[in-house]
């Protein structure tokens, strides 16, 4: 079983910043690609950012240049630094663990609310 615990969400004004954290446990962290997804009310869950075990990253067009995903393999933690936040970034943000070997379990966090509003 994979357990993911997110933290760092909250209320921030437009143009502000937040850093989300996700602590991974239960399996070998390096065997997983780590993703951040988000889901706004009435919308489907969308992939925001991805990082491989080797540190290669990719982003959705809507956050490219504003968000940065990183991972600390010694701490089994993945981060999402969010800068220049916009009201349309308001959503519940979820951490996801996607195994390199598909017989390993997938993990989802419980989600953390990010609200961008003045």
Shape: globular
Structural category: mainly beta
Question: Please, how many helices?
Answer: 0
Q: Which band does the percent of strand residues land in?
A: over 45%
Span between termini: 40 Å
Portion of residues in helices? under 10%
Largest sheet: 7 strands, mixed
Number of strands: 11
Q: Spans of 5+ residues with little confidence (pLDDT < 50)?
A: none
- Output the radius of gyration: 14 Å
Quote the average pLDDT: 96
Order of helices and strands: EEEEEEEEEEE
Can you describe what's shown?
There is one protein chain. The protein has strands at residues 3-7, 10-12, 18-25, 32-39, 46-51, 57-59, 67-72, 77-82, 91-99, 107-108, 112-116. It is mostly beta strands and 118 residues long. The protein is built from no helices and 11 strands. The N and C termini lie far apart (40 Å).
């Amino acid at each position: 079983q994979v357990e993911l615990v997110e933290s760092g969400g909250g209320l921030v004004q437009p143009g502000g910043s937040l850093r989300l954290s996700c602590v991974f446990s239960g399996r070998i962290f390096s065997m997983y690609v780590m993703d951040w997804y988000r889901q706004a009310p009435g919308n489907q869950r969308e992939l925001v950012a991805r990082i491989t075990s080797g540190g290669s990253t990719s982003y959705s067009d809507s956050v490219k240049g504003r968000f940065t995903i990183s991972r600390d393999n010694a701490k089994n933690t993945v981060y999402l630094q969010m800068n220049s936040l916009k009201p349309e970034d308001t959503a519940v943000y979820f951490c996801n663990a996607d195994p390199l070997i598909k017989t390993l379990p997938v993990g989802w966090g419980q989600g953390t609310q990010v609200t961008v509003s003045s």
